[in-house]
Here is the input.
Amino acid sequence: MKLDSLLIHGGIDGDNTTGAVNVPVYQTSTYKQDALGVNRGWEYSRTGNPTRAAVEKLIADLEVGKYGMAFASGLAAINTVLSLFKSGDKLLVSDNIYGGTFRILDNVFKNFGISYEIVNSSDSALIEAAIDDDVKAVYVESPANPLLTVTDIAEVAEIAHKHNKLLIVDNTFLTPYLQRPLSLGADIVIHSGTKYLGGHSDTISGFVVVNDKEIADRLYYLQNAIGGVLAPWDSFLMIRGIKTLAVRMERHQKNAQKIAEWLENSGYVSKVYYPGLKSDPGYEVQKKQADGPGAMISFVLKEEYDYRKFFKSLKLITLAESLGGVESLVCHPASMTHAAIPADIRKKVGIVDELIRLSVGIEDADDLIADLEQAIKS
Ligand SMILES: *Cc1c(COP(=O)(O)O)cnc(C)c1O
Here is the structure.
């Protein structure tokens, strides 16, 4: 089945018992056992729940992976994946990643003796140079948050595997509709399902997909042991959101391309970060490894414009954390999503105070451009 059909019919398609076209919400914590040690495949809903199992199979199908796991948030998924490692292990991490990923590495796992080193993963040679015996995995986002830096996933996978290390890819920004990291050689794919997969800014969720049975078994064990699982109702909402992923992503991208090109030629900005622009350093790699550039744009307003006034003057576009919903959202990474990253690291990678991150929604592109223009001019 092609991906567009899998979005609607992948996973567990409907309900066999009644013929309901939607997977029911199994709002139950436990299951009747027919005799001591005899159950019907379900024991306790932290361990397994049929609604969650449906969305877990769906995300595995979409990522062309064998094993999927659903979590209460993207960070619950990340927490579980990082729990694969032990004291003394080290991770190489992209130099611009989601602020919360940085926070859990720096303020949680570092306390358990798991260290990290930040590298510019868009330069594969820097990754190879940073690999030593302690390094157990490379962790990247592509395009990364918030500067949309593109990492060559196949190239980094080859380097990681040559040295017997794992490659973990956070695929939140593109979703499997646009990029399938397992097919490019990654070992573990992570999602914040809160964003494009859910798509309506109404559910927090996370996913992990892998192909390797041994890694999967360990992750299933950790999912149950740590317990940050996705609830039945939220699993249902994720299945519902995913059904329209293809049409949403197409429109998100069409709008984003138009807005990025407008911004670049507008004279209002000193920089536009968007891998769909020919001027973007990630353009060629993005074209090679993904089916599109996605719909996240970051830009730096020229000095003569006041970014505080810009945020205050927007009328249609909402100032908020998060991304990937049908409505356009704008944020100020330095004080919002990436505030957890120390100022010196932020400056070094380019997360300056004038940086604005735009999650382009599926409204009318001209309305969005008009709103941006009036807010910049004000
Ligand atoms: C939002 C986000 C996360 C964290 O996910 P939550 O669902 O908010 O816990 C991780 N990675 C990326 C790239 C994100 O955008």
User: Anything to note?
Assistant: The CA atoms of residues 170 and 376 lie 32 Å apart. The chain has 14 helices and twelve strands. The mean pLDDT is 96. The longest strand covers residues 135-141.
